[in-house]
Design brief:
The protein is mostly helical. The chain is 63% helix and 8% strand. Strands 1-2 form a two-stranded antiparallel sheet.
């Protein structure tokens, strides 16, 4: 997964946060207006959204002469994928996971325990541990 630049991340934050009451995406103009404090040309925002579509980060749908853009996956799914990609950078995945687990707060550790406990319950009913892990990864990516 490609890391996002500052402007790409700001645009994605706008799409992830959305406009209250709308789930059908946003136009370039709506995204530009939502980027408070930034004086960006319409064409700059359009270019960023086009590049994000090329990277598979956003989906777009024609609405008259304009496009409506929406995030292809949730913010949480994107972050989860970044974490998984970081584990693939080399070295020992196990060592990296242990170091990560030791660095989280108590509350974060409780969240991880609950997620792993729920996953263990799903795995017991699945075809085996690999099936459960694959399903859990898919669920994280879908969110």
């Amino acid at each position: 997964m490609t890391r996002l630049g500052d402007l790409e991340r700001a645009v994605m934050d706008v799409l992830w946060d959305g406009v209250p009451g709308t789930s059908d995406g946003m136009t370039v103009r709506e995204v530009a207006e939502a980027l408070d404090g930034r004086e960006l040309a319409y064409t700059t925002v359009m270019t960023v959204l086009d590049r994000l579509a090329g990277k598979g980060m956003v989906q777009r749908e024609r609405e008259g002469r304009a496009w409506r853009y929406r995030a292809a996956a949730s913010r949480e799914a994107h972050i989860a994928q970044l974490m998984l990609d970081a584990l693939d950078l080399g070295g020992s995945r196990d060592a990296a996971l242990v170091r990560f687990a030791r660095s989280v707060t108590g509350t974060e550790a409780d969240v991880l325990r609950a997620a792993l406990g729920a996953e263990a319950g799903l795995t017991d009913r699945a075809e085996g541990p690999r099936a459960g892990r694959a399903r859990f990864a898919d669920e994280a990516t879908d969110r």
